[in-house]
Amino acid sequence: MQTDFLGEARRQAEICNACRYCEGYCAVFPALHRERAFSDGDLTQLANLCHNCRGCYYACQYTAPHEFDLNLPRALAEVRQESWKRHAWPNGFAGVFDRSGLLIAVGLVVGFALLFSLARGLRPEEGEGFYAVMSHGMMVAIFAPAFVLPLLALAASLRSYWREVGGGPLRLRDLLAATRSAGRMRNLEGGHGDGCNFEDEGRFTHARRHLHQAVLYGFLLCFASTASGTILHYVFGMEAPYGLFSLPKLLGVPGGILLSIGTAGLAWLKTRADRDLSAPAAWGGEMAFVLLLFTVGSSGLLLYAATGTGHVGWLLPLHLGAVLTFFVLTPYSKMAHGFYRMTALTREAAARDGGQV
Fold first, then answer.
1. Sign of the C-alpha dihedral, residues 84, 87, 93, 95?
2. Contact 269, 199 (CB under 8 A)
3. pTM for the full model?
4. 262 three-state secondary structure
5. Each residue's pLDDT tens digit, 246-268
6. What would the pLDDT profile of 61-74 be if each residue is shown by its tens digit?
7. Distance in angstroms (rounded) separating the CA atoms of residues 347 and 188
8. Which one-letter DSSP state was computed for residue 69?
9. Phi-psi category of 82—alpha, beta or left, where left has phi over 0 and alpha has psi -120 to 50?
10. Any idea where the domains of the chain sit in the sequence?
C-alpha cells in the first residue's frame, strides 16, 4: 500500500544507498545497501530495524538546508508507526493509543483500580498477604485472558508483518542471532562503539542503550518472578505470600528496581531529544507507555514495601489496575515495538546468512 510516508522513505533510502557514508552505523544500512530498489515490504523492514539512535542524521551532509533535506530517522519512524497500525489486529484499535495515549492509560488504570477496589467485597473469609484483600481465583480469572488474548492479537499482527517483509521458514539460528543482538542492544552502540547521540548532536553516550537494557531485563525478571510464583503455587502447593529470600522475591524486587530506573531514565532522555527526528504525532503515546511501565514497576515495589500495613488496601488495586492496563494495551502501544523489532532482527539475520533474499 503506497502512502506518503512510504514514498518519502523510498526517496531518502535511494539517496542513502547512493551515498553509503553511514554503512557501519547499525543494522539498517547493510540491509539498505543490499537493495537496488525498495518495495513497500523492504521499507517496512528497514523501519522496524531502525532503533532511532539518530547517529546517521547528525553525520549526514544532506540534511536541511541541503536541497535533499534528508531526515532518515523521522522517515523510518513514520513508516514504522504506520506499519504497526496497518498490521494491528483487530485493526479498529490501531492508532487510538497514539492519539490519546496518556488519557487512555490514566483512564484505564483508574477505572480498573476502582473495579478492583469494589471487588474487594468478594474477598475470601480467610487469606494471607494480598489474598486477604483479593482472592487468588479472582486474580486468575481476570489476568489469564488479559495475558493470553493480547498475545494472540500480537501473533496475528506479526504473522501479517512477516508475510509483508518476505520472511521465509523460521529458523532457530536466526532467532538466536536476533536474541543476542536484542539482549546486547548492539544497534544502540553507535557506528564506532561510542554509543548514540540520541539527545544531542555532539554528545555520544551509552545511556539510552543501558536504560533500554534495564527495562528489558527488569521486565524479564518481573515476568520470571510471576512465573516462578505460579509454579510454586500449582506444582509445589506453596502459596503466597513469599518471603524476601524466596525465588519470586529474589527475581521480582531487582526486576522492579531495574524497570523503574530504566523507564524513568528513558522518559527523561525523551524530553531532551529533538522530537522532529522521530514521529512527532506519536510522541505523546510513546511517553504515556513509558510512564505506564514505570507505574507498573514502582507500584509493585511500593506494594511489597507496604506488605502487612493498611496501605495494601489501596496500593493493590492501583498496581493491579496498572498491570491490567499494560496487558490490554500491549498490542497497540509502544510495547509492540519490541515484538516487531525482534521479528525484524530475525528477518535480517536470515538475509545476512543467505537464507532469504
1. positive
2. yes
3. 0.90
4. helix
5. 999 999 999 999 999 999 999 99
6. 999 999 999 999 99
7. 19
8. -
9. alpha
10. 4-85, 89-352
Q: Which of 283, 227, 230, 294 lies closest to 256 in space, CA to CA?
A: 294
User: Which ranges of 205-282 does DSSP label H, i.e. alpha helix?
Assistant: 207-234, 247-272
| Upper half-sphere CA count for residue 66 (Cβ side, 13 Å) | 11
Q: Which amino acid is at 261?
A: I
Task: Name every residue whose Cβ is closer than 8 Å to that of residue 259 and which is 6 or more positions away in sequence.
Answer: 214, 215, 218, 219, 222, 293, 294, 296, 297
- The span from the CA of 34 to the CA of 339, in Å, is 24
Burial group, residue 65, by CB count within 10 angstroms (0-12, 13-18, 19+): exposed
Let me know the angle formed at the C-alpha of 47 by 42 and 53, rounded to the nearest 5 degrees: 145
C-alpha cell at 354: 543467505
Cα–Cα distance, 247 to 70 (Å, whole number): 51
- CA separation for the pair 300, 223 (Å, rounded): 12
At residue 196, φ and ψ (nearest 5 deg) are: -110, 160
CB 89 within 8 A of CB 153: yes
| Residue found by looking up cell 488495586 in the block | 317
| For helices 40-49 and 4-19, angle between their N-to-C axes, nearest 10 degrees | 70
CA distances from 88 to 85, 157, 307 (A): 5, 5, 39
Confirm if 57 and 71 have CB atoms less than 8 A apart. Answer: yes
